[in-house]
Specification:
260 residues, alpha/beta, 2 domains, seven-stranded parallel beta sheet
């Protein structure tokens, strides 16, 4: 799809690769001035160099002073932030275990990035949007924030929090012209899912058939497919969508089931 984002400034967190990089590329292709923010600054800079009118900055979404400084840097260069995409997120690779064995430090690490991170960045960016008369905030959650999953208690709790954080922001900020919505991706082909499922040496490669059996389209999604959904919510034409949670999951949730 195409959308006219000319003159818009879009800040994307976790933008050095995967879904975040695809979102930035899609926004830039539709006229936005994009900001690649990531804890991995060299990778973000490499992406920005290959993208017209782009900038890169380091942002650790768990560090409130650092987040504030990054937002100030964007405003100093562009004067505004029109679109924020809270994409930065992590999951555990090593600790796929039941809650009785789930490490508290791993719980804290995931919650800090996946839930506190969107709160801190939205808190800072929304002030800029209030000053400029409006904007769009798009949070990246997960289908695991909408349905339960074994062995991922921290991730599912964090993403469920993002879903209701989105709705809360929608009712708090909508009257000020700031629309807040959420994308809930299903299983997307990224480096992380390659390590877990889709790579030949993936840790749970033997379970891929079972995973795909729950997805009517029978395949993982592509990063560009998430980026297109984000573009839809960022488009000027989506001006009456606020507080929505949009699954992009190949139909997974339409017939959700699990093995008992």
């Amino acid at each position: 799809m195409n959308a006219n984002l000319s003159g818009k400034v879009a800040l994307v967190t976790g933008a050095a690769g995967g879904i975040g990089a695809a979102i930035c590329s899609t926004m830039a292709a539709n006229g936005a001035k994009v900001v690649f923010s990531d804890i991995n600054l060299p990778a973000a800079e490499a992406m920005a160099r290959a993208t017209p009118h782009a900038m890169a900055l380091r942002m650790d979404v768990t560090d409130e002073p650092g987040v504030e400084a990054a937002i100030d840097a964007v405003v100093a260069r562009h004067g505004r932030i029109d679109i924020l995409v809270n994409n930065a997120g992590i999951n555990t690779l090593a600790h796929r275990v039941n809650i009785d064995r789930f490490p508290t430090e791993e719980w804290d690490r995931i919650l800090r990035v996946d839930l506190t991170g969107p709160f801190l960045v939205s808190k800072a960016a929304s002030r800029c949007m209030l000053d400029s008369g409006g904007g769009r905030i798009i949070n990246i959650a997960s289908v695991m924030g909408l349905v339960p999953a074994r062995l991922q208690c921290a991730y599912t709790a964090a993403k469920a929090g993002v879903v209701n954080l989105t709705r809360t922001m929608a009712i708090e900020l909508g009257c000020h012209g700031i629309l807040t919505n959420c994308i809930a991706p299903g299983s997307i082909l990224t480096e992380g899912t390659r390590q877990l499922f889709y790579g030949e040496d993936g840790r749970f490669n033997d379970r891929v058939k079972g995973l795909l059996a729950h997805i009517p389209l029978g395949r993982p999604g592509q990063c560009d497919e998430i980026a297109s959904a984000v573009l839809f919510l960022a488009a000027p034409e989506s001006s009456y969508i606020n507080g929505a949670v949009l699954p992009v999951d190949g139909g997974w949730l339409a017939g959700y089931s699990r093995d008992f």
